[in-house]
């Protein structure tokens, strides 16, 4: 049996509205034999289990903060599951309430982008996705939901969202804000030849002066290699690598003097299974949660941001190094 893909937003004001929209969605999935997943907070999970009764035993529950931990990885995992189920004639049905609070603005922006890209990535999977959004969330978050979901659930019906945007147009809007200036204390490495050994050594030397865990360092090294390779392939010299610290973040930026074309794809979707085994910027997004790309005006900049554990906001690199 084939299914039509749906991606709907459920705005709610209080638990009654949340349950009125989510319970019929979950019950319908159980009755249809779907794989049914509910991603929400503990309070909502307890309320759902109570109302669902025996249906709740057929629902897989996950905590929002754990599920929504990394934009590209979460997208990849869900897409893999949806595709596998579709191939067996089943459907993936997700009630997914994103964790918006306590996230930095750039993380919020990347999750909003994922909400838009879902409409492209899952189009052929037949998945059903319902995203509850509390009306108490910041107005900008709720407004973005109406631009990234084709339909809104009202009671037992779904209506078209007049403010829904083409996913690629929405994604392009996410990249309109200029990057923040590179700080004066940033360290700089001109890249004059494709010597990736010394490039990785330079990045590793800088990163080891920070609290970046070894596992994250290895991811960074692979990501930087991919970005520099893309700069050599799609950009133009001179190519410059810079690294610096921001509050609780390690930042790595590669700038070249070419403008990358649309054929790069900017890594927002995984490569097709039947296409060439090129991962490029998709691999970079899997490795780093925040990837900012700006191209235009005769240059392209790719900025990678990695969280640093146990670094209080505002602590400069020299303080971590023990300098004056």
From TrEMBL:
<dbReference type="InterPro" id="IPR036890">
    <property type="entry name" value="HATPase_C_sf"/>
</dbReference>
<keyword id="KW-0808">Transferase</keyword>
<dbReference type="InterPro" id="IPR047718">
    <property type="entry name" value="RsbA-like_anti_sig"/>
</dbReference>
<protein>
    <submittedName>
        <fullName>Sensor histidine kinase</fullName>
    </submittedName>
</protein>
<feature type="domain" description="MEDS">
    <location>
        <begin position="6"/>
        <end position="150"/>
    </location>
</feature>
<keyword id="KW-0723">Serine/threonine-protein kinase</keyword>
<dbReference type="InterPro" id="IPR050267">
    <property type="entry name" value="Anti-sigma-factor_SerPK"/>
</dbReference>
<dbReference type="GO" id="GO:0004674">
    <property type="term" value="F:protein serine/threonine kinase activity"/>
</dbReference>
<dbReference type="InterPro" id="IPR003594">
    <property type="entry name" value="HATPase_dom"/>
</dbReference>
<dbReference type="Pfam" id="PF14417">
    <property type="entry name" value="MEDS"/>
</dbReference>
<dbReference type="Pfam" id="PF13581">
    <property type="entry name" value="HATPase_c_2"/>
</dbReference>
<keyword id="KW-0418">Kinase</keyword>
<dbReference type="InterPro" id="IPR025847">
    <property type="entry name" value="MEDS_domain"/>
</dbReference>
<feature type="domain" description="Histidine kinase/HSP90-like ATPase">
    <location>
        <begin position="199"/>
        <end position="305"/>
    </location>
</feature>
């Amino acid at each position: 049996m084939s299914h039509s893909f749906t991606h709907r937003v459920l705005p709610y004001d209080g638990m009654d509205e949340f349950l009125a929209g989510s319970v019929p969605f979950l019950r319908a999935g159980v009755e249809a034999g779907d794989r049914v997943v509910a991603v929400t907070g503990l309070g909502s999970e307890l309320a759902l289990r109570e109302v669902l009764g025996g249906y709740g035993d057929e629902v897989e529950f996950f905590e929002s903060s754990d599920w929504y931990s990394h934009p590209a990885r979460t997208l990849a995992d869900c897409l893999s599951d949806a595709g596998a189920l579709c191939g067996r004639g089943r459907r993936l049905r997700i009630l997914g309430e994103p964790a918006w609070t306590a996230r930095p603005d750039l993380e919020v922006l990347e999750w909003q982008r994922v909400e838009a890209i879902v409409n492209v990535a899952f189009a052929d999977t037949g998945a059903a996705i319902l995203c509850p959004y509390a009306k108490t969330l910041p107005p900008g978050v709720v407004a973005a939901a109406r631009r990234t979901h084709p339909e809104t659930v009202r009671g037992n019906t779904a209506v078209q969202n007049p403010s829904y945007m083409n996913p690629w147009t929405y994604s392009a809007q996410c990249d309109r804000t200029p990057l923040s200036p590179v700080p004066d204390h940033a360290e700089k490495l001109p890249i004059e030849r494709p010597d990736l050994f010394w490039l990785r050594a330079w990045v590793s030397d800088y990163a080891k002066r920070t609290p970046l865990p070894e596992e994250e360092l290895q991811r960074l090294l692979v990501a930087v290699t991919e970005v520099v390779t893309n700069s050599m392939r799609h950009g133009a010299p001179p190519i410059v690598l810079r690294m610096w610290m921001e509050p609780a973040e390690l930042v790595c930026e590669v700038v070249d003097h070419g403008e990358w074309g649309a054929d790069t794809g900017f890594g927002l979707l995984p490569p097709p299974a039947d296409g060439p085994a090129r991962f490029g910027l998709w691999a970079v997004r899997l490795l780093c949660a925040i990837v900012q790309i700006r191209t235009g005006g005769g240059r392209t900049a790719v900025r990678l941001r990695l969280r640093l554990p146990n670094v209080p906001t505002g602590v400069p690199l020299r303080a971590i190094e023990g300098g004056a």
